[in-house]
Design goal:
The structure is a single chain. This protein is of the alpha/beta class and 335 residues long. It contains 12 helices and 16 strands. The chain folds into 2 domains: 192 residues, Rossmann fold (3-Layer(aba) Sandwich), CATH 3.40.50; 62 residues, no CATH class. A 6-stranded mixed β-sheet has the order 8-9-10-5-11-12, with helices on both faces. A hairpin with a 4-residue loop joins β14 and β15.
C-alpha cells in the first residue's frame, strides 16, 4: 500500500490528522470499458481537492463511488471516507458526506422552504429543529425572501444555492461537488466560489469536479488531472503549471540602439524587430528575473518593459489530455 497515499496530514499544532478521503487503486469498468484504472486519492481535511479531466475521464464515476452511489470495481484497494471504511460501513460514510451534482436535486414544484424541510425530514430532525436549520441555511444562502416561492421560479444560481443549502442540512464535513457551476452566469459562478471558500474556512472538505480550469485555479489546494481512467498528474496549480514548457520573459525597448545591443548579447533570445522586443525562456523564478535585471544593469542597458509569461492550467490540461508530450514526473515529486 503506497505510503504517499495512506499517510496522514498535519494539523495546525503539528498533530497527525487522518485524511478526509483516502483511496488506493480505485477501479471501475463497465463491460470492456475501463473508466477508472487504479487511481489513488489522498484529500486532507479542510481543503479543496479538484478533479479535472475531459468528458468521460471518470470524474463523476469517482464521485459516485466515494459517495456510495456506485460500488467500486473488483480489485480496488481500501477506501476510507470521513474515517470510515466504505466497503464495511457505507451507512456511516453517508452520514459524513453531502453530495451536490451538476443536475439540481431541487423539486421545482414546491417552495424553497418546503425543499429544505423535506431534507430535514429525511435527516430525521424534529419539526422545530428542522425549521430552525432550514431558516438558518436559507438566510445564509440569501434565499429568505424567495423561501415561500416555488423553486420553479428560481434562477439557475438560486437553484444551485438551494441545492447546496439542502446538502448542508445534515451538517456534513465532506462535500462532493460534481460540476457545481455548470450553466451558471459569471456572477453566479463567483457567488458559488465564495460559498465554497466559506465552507472550507469552516472546516469542511470539498472534492470538486469541474471542466472550468479557472475554477480549479481559484479554489483548489490540490488538483488531479484525470485522463483515460488514470491520474496523469497531481499537485498544486503552480506545481502543475511548471510541468509544461513555454514560460518566458519578454523585454521591450523604446530605444532601438538598446534593443540591438541586448539582442546581440542575448543571442538565445527570440527577436521581434518590429516591436523592439526580446523573448527569453524562463520559469519566472525570482532568481532568473534577478539575473536578467542584474545583467541589464551591468551592461548599462535599460528595458522599458519586462513581463513574465507562465503557462496556465489551460496549457497543462491540453498537454496532459491532448497528446502533447511533457516529461513524466512521479506524483511524489510534486508534493
Amino acid at each position: 500500500m503506497p505510503s504517499s497515499v495512506m499517510s496522514t496530514s498535519k494539523t495546525g499544532d503539528g498533530r497527525e490528522a487522518p485524511a478526509a478521503v483516502c483511496a488506493v487503486g480505485l477501479r471501475k469498468s463497465y463491460g470492456d470499458k475501463v473508466v477508472l484504472d487504479g487511481i489513488d486519492l489522498h484529500i486532507p481535511a479542510g481543503t479543496v481537492f479538484a478533479l479535472l479531466g475531459p468528458n468521460g475521464a471518470g470524474k463523476t464515476t469517482a464521485v459516485k463511488i466515494l459517495s456510495t452511489l456506485v460500488s467500486p470495481g473488483a480489485g480496488s484497494g481500501k477506501i476510507r471516507v470521513g474515517g470510515h471504511d466504505l466497503a464495511a460501513d457505507p451507512q456511516r460514510v453517508r452520514t459524513a458526506i453531502g453530495v451536490t451534482g451538476q443536475f439540481s436535486a431541487v423539486d421545482a414544484l414546491i417552495t424553497g422552504e418546503e425543499n429544505m424541510l423535506l431534507m430535514a425530514d429525511l435527516h430525521r430532525l424534529s419539526k422545530s429543529e428542522g425549521r430552525r436549520v432550514a431558516a438558518e441555511l436559507l438566510e445564509r444562502f440569501d434565499l429568505t425572501e424567495a423561501a415561500k416561492k416555488p423553486a420553479s421560479t428560481y434562477s439557475g444560481g438560486m437553484k444551485r444555492r438551494l441545492d447546496i443549502a439542502m446538502t448542508l442540512v445534515g451538517d456534513p464535513r465532506i462535500i462532493f461537488l460534481d460540476e457545481p457551476t455548470t450553466g451558471l452566469d459569471p456572477r453566479s459562478r463567483h457567488t458559488m466560489w465564495q460559498i465554497i471558500r466559506e465552507l472550507v474556512a469552516g472546516g469542511v472538505t470539498v472534492l470538486l469536479t469541474t471542466q472550468y480550469l479557472d475554477e480549479a485555479d481559484e479554489l483548489a489546494d490540490r488538483i488531479a488531472v484525470l485522463n483515460d481512467g488514470k491520474i496523469a498528474a497531481e499537485g498544486t496549480a503552480e506545481e502543475l503549471k511548471r510541468l509544461v514548457p513555454g514560460g518566458h520573459v519578454r523585454l521591450r525597448f523604446a530605444d532601438p540602439a538598446a534593443y540591438r545591443s541586448a539582442a546581440v548579447a542575448l543571442s538565445e533570445a527570440t527577436r521581434d524587430d518590429e516591436a523592439l522586443a526580446l523573448q527569453l525562456p524562463s520559469g519566472g523564478s525570482q532568481r532568473e528575473l534577478r539575473s536578467i535585471l542584474d545583467w541589464l544593469d551591468s551592461a548599462g542597458i535599460e528595458a522599458d518593459e519586462l513581463t513574465v509569461h507562465t503557462p496556465d492550467l489551460d496549457d497543462v490540461f491540453f498537454a496532459l489530455t491532448g497528446g502533447a508530450g511533457i516529461p513524466h514526473q512521479p506524483k511524489e515529486n510534486l508534493r
